[in-house]
Design a protein that fits this description.
The chain contains 11 helices and 18 strands. The chain is of the alpha+beta class. Among the domains are: 77 residues, Dna Ligase, domain 1; 64 residues, ATPase, nucleotide binding domain (Nucleotidyltransferase, domain 5, 2-Layer Sandwich), CATH 3.30.420. A hairpin with a 2-residue loop joins strand 13 and strand 14. The chain binds adenosine-5'-triphosphate and magnesium ion.
Amino acid sequence: MPETKTLTVVDVGSTKVLALVGELDDSEIGFTVIGVGRAPSQGVRRGQVVNLAQATSAIREALIGAQISSGVRQTEAILSINGASVSSRNVNGTAPISRGYQGVTQQDVNRALESAQAVNLPSDRDILHVIPRRFRVDDQDGVRNPLGMLGFRLEVEAHLITISEVVEQNLIKCASDAGVAVSELVFAPLAAAEAVLTPAEREMGVVAVDIGGGVSGITIFIEGEAWYTSVIEVGGIHFTNDLAQVFSLPFETAERLKIDFGHANPNEVPVEQICDLAGFGDEPRVRVRRRDVAEVLNARAEELFELIINEIARSGYDGLLPAGLVLTGGAALLPGLRECARRITERPVRVAYPQGLHGLVDALQTPAASSAVGLLRWGTRELARRPARKRYPGEHFSLREWLRKLLP
Ligand SMILES: Nc1ncnc2c1ncn2[C@@H]1O[C@H](COP(=O)(O)OP(=O)(O)OP(=O)(O)O)[C@@H](O)[C@H]1O
Ligand SMILES: [Mg+2]
């Protein structure tokens, strides 16, 4: 039997952890999903680990689900990372072209990218991604792929994404304690964009927004590559919290209210509709008008899109985004959100689901799965480019050991 290659990824979100196992093949997307494991998130707030033991157990639970459904036990995984400690800037690097008459080689590109990373980073920050945006070979500007081009001097403009080292190390420790070494960390909104953007959108200029539970991650793509990234600390949990506060409801009741009856556009909701809900403990039931619910959600949505407009302005690329906004992440499911985004940002907007999947895809047909699917796409592409490198050792994970701990 031919040997099959598999890849495990874990998207660690503020509301859920989603682990997937992909088997690499020669389909268009490059893999079939053969394992899915999901666990409610714990110990992760606003995209960052805040409680190591809780986050570890959520990651482990998701990994076990993926391992049981796929029958594959892996000791290594690609993880997503998120949160406001992520920041980005554009940098330049240069390298001499070593054998000018043979043209630019991959080594020259790597050297130019290395020199781009030689920036003054505070000691508590680490580089997460270095994404080449475009190259210059001697006087030839705006080069997309310099390989083989003749010249003496290679320059690169790159997008550098950095993260707090402590935030990164905490996540790596959780993964390691849950039984996997981290082969790669990927900024979650970048992974989400990977799963949902079309090549045409990336080329034209687009803002991908991953609206999760705790944070909304923004990635601006121009000429096919990421040029700007940032994180806004507003997500679906804030929408739910607003409902809980305004109508004096327990968080879980407010969450159900949002998911079952929520709308971001009050005019779309009939005035007479009333929702009858259980209150706190033995308090009397609470009756709320569905239109009032929509008013509250609309206020939060408008605020979120105002913040997104500010980020687009801060990027300096507002004139280069004809493809508008692509919304994904679980909170993008709120009915009326697209219309609200369109009205506030005055740009085209679509809500995007992961595309082109095969295998165990039922649980993945939701914008909430975009980051996890994007991690698989990322990993598949990187594996084709170079073998996975193990960056951080993990403890060997034994399913039997873990089950034993659970049993009385
Ligand atoms: N039908 C729906 N309508 C409105 N909101 C929804 C719906 N379904 C899910 N959500 C919201 O989506 C959010 C979770 O999204 P997602 O799973 O993408 O977040 P996450 O990855 O766990 O968190 P983060 O990326 O912020 O760390 C929750 O706040 C949830 O209430
Ligand atoms: Mg997420």
